[in-house]
Amino acid sequence: MITLGEVQETNKMIREMNLDVRTITMGISLMDCAHSDLAVFNRNIYDKITRLGEKLVQTGEDLERQFGIPIVNKRVSVTPISIAAGGLKTDSYVPVAETLDKAAKEIGVNFLGGFSALVHKGFTESDLKLIHSIPEALAVTERVCSSVNIGTSRSGINMDAVKLMGSIVKRTAELTSDRDSAGCSKLVIFCNAVEDNPFMAGAFHGVGEPECVINVGVSGPGVVKRALEEVKHKDFESLCETIKRTAFKVTRVGQLVAQETSKRLGVPFGIVDLSLAPTPEIGDSIAEIFQAMGLEEAGAPGTTAALAILNDNVKKGGVMASSNVGGLSGAFIPVSEDHGMIEAVQKGALTLEKLEAMTCVCSVGLDMIAIPGDTSEATLSGIIADEAAIGMINNKTTAVRIIPVIGKGVGEIAEFGGLLGYAPVMPVNGFSCAGFIDRGGRIPAPIHSFKN
Questions:
Q1: What pLDDT does 282 receive?
Q2: In terms of CB atoms within 10 Å, which end of the chain has fewer, N or C?
Q3: 10 Å Cβ neighbour count for 178?
């Protein structure tokens, strides 16, 4: 039971420390929408999404007013379209993406995730249709998000998919070049993707999930930063304890919102994802947490250790506050969405290579990173392969959401707008990996015993 006292305590965090519920995400299964005819399939998915999601936005707004808790986004995730559309007789899934976009606009959600494929062991015909449809789909829609899972710790890495996704990212950038290649901000390439992630752009409704479910994502970098300022000169045990206690309080906010949303919509409560996801707002930054820990800038020696401390203790505090903590839960490090990260890049403290090292211990991976538009497809694939290898070997979720900004070079600024923010274009290692990527095939899964 969540008490009134806990609600009152969170009000201070909301007013003074930028605490918010980042998203209420409704997961919807589209398995029963399957049909071979494109028009029928589109009608089925549109009708189901608009029927189940009809009251989602209004419910979120009602809860905001009742509890005074900002709920920034209301979103929907659906069954990966490559699965739901497996029997479809069509050469392109772009019309399906347009239907999803239309449904998202009708119910008023910010984003809809699930234009996705799971290809970690190989491709079906439907997977290939979907992947080849991604660039155009993201160019012609506003709210649709896409993801592709190219590896797991149990199956290894599909390097044919890695090579293909390098070209897909580049083509997506080209088709949205008039918007600083922003289509790539809606595309995530995963290793070890999870089925209940409420955060975009990587959310999809897994096949092991119920018919419909409510997942909530809570974010509170500002709250953690403020708490750490109170223990500025204390030891690491005090630091860790402070993060755990703060994460507990933040998770309880998500628990309250998730339970109330579930009850009012008559939809099962799935999970609370406690991920410290920053925004471009001052005081809502992961980089500022590092500074509160004692680092001059994000990227300074010790940054990976600081992130490991943060990620682990956020999880420890969260699991004590809710029996349904899931999703990704930890700390995100998207460059464009964190003003402190942006400043660190501009000062030369934070590089792509340091960010890659940090992904070994964060919740996801290389996120919202702008790179030169003339970066080759092979280099993009190499970056994806490196990140997937980190996830595969360490048995954790990793991802790449990288944006080759067509027409821009190192040091120039790419503008994405809203929560996506802006980012300085970062340099990329110029040496070629084409011979490695061109090998094709699959990297076998690592051994799961004899752990060192």
A1: 64
A2: C
A3: 10
